[in-house]
Write a structure and sequence with these properties.
The chain is about 35% helix and about 10% strand. The protein is α+β, with helices and mostly antiparallel strands and about 90 residues long.
């Protein structure tokens, strides 16, 4: 699952991460028995904010908080910006 925005008039598509998408991915990684997650760049994280992606991963994977609680703390309105089917399946073999 990924968060995305799409402008049909300009035919512009962009995907991005939110606290909800990261929390869901952390939940999936934990369920798959993975030991953690990798983040490419931490310099633009909203450190100290409810919108911190690193914090969302920690809260989901380590503290085992519900995704709904993490989503509720975010300033983003996920039902508007999150697309996808809400399911993250196993890795293809």
């Amino acid at each position: 699952q990924a968060s995305y925005i799409y402008n049909a008039e300009l035919d512009i598509f962009s995907s991005f991460e939110t606290t909800t998408s990261i929390a869901l991915k952390a939940e999936w990684a934990d369920a798959m028995g993975l030991g953690g997650m990798m983040f490419w760049d931490l310099s633009n994280d909203a450190t100290g904010s409810p919108d911190s992606l690193i914090s969302a991963a920690f809260r989901s994977m380590v503290l085992e908080e519900d995704v709904a609680d993490i989503q509720a703390d975010s300033s983003l309105s996920d039902p508007i910006v999150v697309g996808g089917d809400g399911e993250i399946g196993p890795l293809p073999l």
